[in-house]
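User: Some background: our group keeps a shared notebook of sequences we're curious about, and every so often someone picks one and asks for a predicted structure to add to the entry. Today it's my turn. The entry only has the sequence so far, pasted here. Could you supply the structure so I can complete it?
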Amino acid sequence: MRNKYYPVQYLAASIVFSIVFCIISCAPKIAMIGSPYERYDHNRTQKIVITMHNDTDKTITKSVVDEVYIPSGSAYFPTAQYKERGSEADNLPVANVVPIFTGVSLPLSSAPAKEGRSDREDIIDFLAEGPYAQAGVQPGETMGDTKSAEITYKPMLDFLGSKKQLTGEREQIIERLSYLNADVADEIIDSRYRLRSFANVLALRYEKFWFILYKLPDNKYYSRLVVVPAKIKGQDFPGKRP
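Assistant: Of course. Here's the predicted structure to add to the notebook entry:
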């Protein structure tokens, strides 16, 4: 026999779902630049020139790898101690002085590098590994589907490769990218720098990543890029847009 309360139950469920959807859809969109493992801020295949400031001023060329960021420090980057105290009981330094990369240069280069991949190729590899790979410091051991990633993110990467498209004010950039239906972040959290050091910072969510663009004072175009995963807990309603 048909449940005579079904219409009421259905209406109640619809109301609850609508409220939940509204809460999720209306929640602030936050782009967070977290650990070096998650953020893409430099070409991971390029070696870094390091000058050791000591009696010899030795200069070495070294690839930056995950081990650079371990708590105990790295042989290639100095550690810091309090002047009046040595190491604590666990022998960890007070701080590690490691690279803080300023972001990939824009417009995005497709030119083959002398050592390693072009910036565009390396970003495609990073995107292909997915938002949970934590491969921001060095490429992962398992390569993702770079062909699919190249197709999926081509519109955004093409845009980032054009200085003309990157030139202008914030509103102009958003308007030019409106055809991609990308989300614009309401807030950007950058643990590396004060955002007011830049003329403008713009974060755009496209597919599974935030593409964060930096514009320097007195500069006419956005000249730096950091890519971070857009991690969604539970249902990804904005990600299900047509």
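Suggested note for the entry: Residues 136 and 174 are 26 Å apart (CA to CA). The first strand starts at residue 30 and ends at 33.
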